């Protein structure tokens, strides 16, 4: 049964489609030897039987459709969009896809496309852009379902340990951000990929466990060293603040020093309680099993609580000491000495803040951040 004859509308549409496939509007995609298409069309119209003609047209159209996609995938191992994805240049990725949508099929020599590379190189901004384009229908869902030559899906690559250092302090925070990245990609990928095995027979969860064994050990060691150092100092503060809170300096009970006595009693109590909380938190970290899933929140939360209590204990101890010192040397300090005394205390607090607070706030930011921030790398200059 023949659907149409030479010269019919459908016949002409197929030939025109063939010509469009061969001659895209973009001059960058022109093929050498393009004049032969006219001869092919004329010969098809005049010489071939209708069934051969139809079959040839169909095969030519399908062949050139496939060749365009295949050439986009295999012509180059490194294309502009792949470089932009690797380095997290979201604007360039967006512009390339706007003008050359076929670039979404580009792959490198390991058959990794833009989604796999964005996940492998931990580029959340690029990954979010690709997700938004998928929701709009600009790129196909199949791009998110590809696997590389080793059978690794996007979730397998997300489970692989990062080949660079996240911009967060300590091995424990590095582990935490690797977990966050894996969970972020996991929420964006179809559930069927959770049980997909690569060519080595590993699921994404198994890949994560195997590639992070060393980092778990390093993170546990970092937490142990930090907790040991802080717990020793916090223990000394517990002893000192307990003694200080149970010792009443001369003159505290006098009415004229009522406000100062309240400050001394309150700061001593706060210092003792917070230093005790710090010791408990650090001991809780030391006695934990350093399980993989605990790095997601539990261990770092305990560390932050312990450090917060420890810093409050130091500040309140300084206030309590200054108040007690006021009672002892009240009648012996003139105005100049008192001013110098205040300046020294202020300098101590400032020095402590400059030395400790940047690291503390960095840890706090790293723990509360839901999605890891991208780490930009310099793009190499190609000759």
UniProtKB/TrEMBL annotation:
Taxonomic lineage from the root: Eukaryota, Viridiplantae, Streptophyta, Embryophyta, Tracheophyta
The keyword Protein transport is annotated on this UniProt entry: no
Pfam families the UniProt entry points to: PGG (PF13962)
Residue ranges of every copy of the PGG domain listed in the record: 221-327
Span of the signal peptide: none
SUPFAM superfamilies (UniProt xref): Ankyrin repeat
Keywords: Membrane, Transmembrane, Transmembrane helix
Family annotation (InterPro entries): Ankyrin_rpt-contain_sf, PGG_dom
Keyword Transmembrane: yes
Domain of life: Eukaryota
Transmembrane segments: 222-244, 264-287, 299-321, 341-368
GO cellular component, as recorded: membrane
Protein name per its UniProtKB record: PGG domain-containing protein
